[in-house]
């Protein structure tokens, strides 16, 4: 049985967004720190084993799609770092746009699945077993949660799925999800200037 939750006020939403952004930058900082420390204390040859894997574009993109559609278990920043391992800045930004587009489309597919399956009893049982937390958050924050998920570590695919399950307006969903591109490009520019290349 669904628990009735109060709707978040404007101030609640603002605080939640700020909290999400802070968490996002903290995670981003941890990833950068890990790579910087690796560059400083590890021999470059330690990363040589990654080279064959980095060249398997189809495999990496498949992993990225699966991560984005399911629970976002892998931070997109890792794939942005992968994208910058060769080529010029323009080439890099093109690949980042491609990754952002994949994330955007994957989110919409999750949204569509949620919207299509929302009245099926098995899906509802699945939703409350594995995504109860995000279902409650969506009912509390509504479409605002989509914006937070595009910019923070909150699983974008899970939130998109719950948005579809809640029959959230499709046009508004697509509009809010465009913030995903902002996250990718801002982080990509920062990473490019840090020049985190290993292979």
Describe the fold and architecture.
Helices cover 75% and strands 0% of the residues. It is mainly α. It has one domain. It is globular, with a radius of gyration of 18 Å.
- Mean pLDDT level: 84
Order of helices and strands: HHHHHHHHHHH
> Which range best describes the helical content: under 10%, 10-25%, 25-40%, 40-55%, 55-70% or over 70%?
over 70%
Strand-pairing-aware structural class: mainly alpha
Distance between the termini: 52 Å
- What Rg do the Cα atoms give? 18 Å
Total count of helical runs of at least 4 residues: 11
Largest sheet, in brief, is:
none
| Total discrete domains | 1
Shape: globular
Unreliable parts: 1-5
Q: How many extended strands?
A: 0
Q: Strand portion, in percent? A: under 5%
Transmembrane segments: 16-37, 57-80, 92-113, 141-161, 173-194
Keywords: Membrane, Transmembrane, Transmembrane helix
Protein name: Short-chain dehydrogenase
For this entry, give a set of tags.
single chain; 199 residues; mainly alpha; 11 helices; disordered N terminus
Concise account of the structure shown:
The protein is 75% helix and 0% strand.
Topology:
Blueprint: H1 10-41, H2 50-54, H3 57-69, H4 76-83, H5 89-117, H6 121-130, H7 132-141, H8 144-151, H9 156-165, H10 170-177, H11 179-194
Helix pairs in contact: 1-8, 3-5, 4-11, 5-9, 5-11, 8-9, 8-11
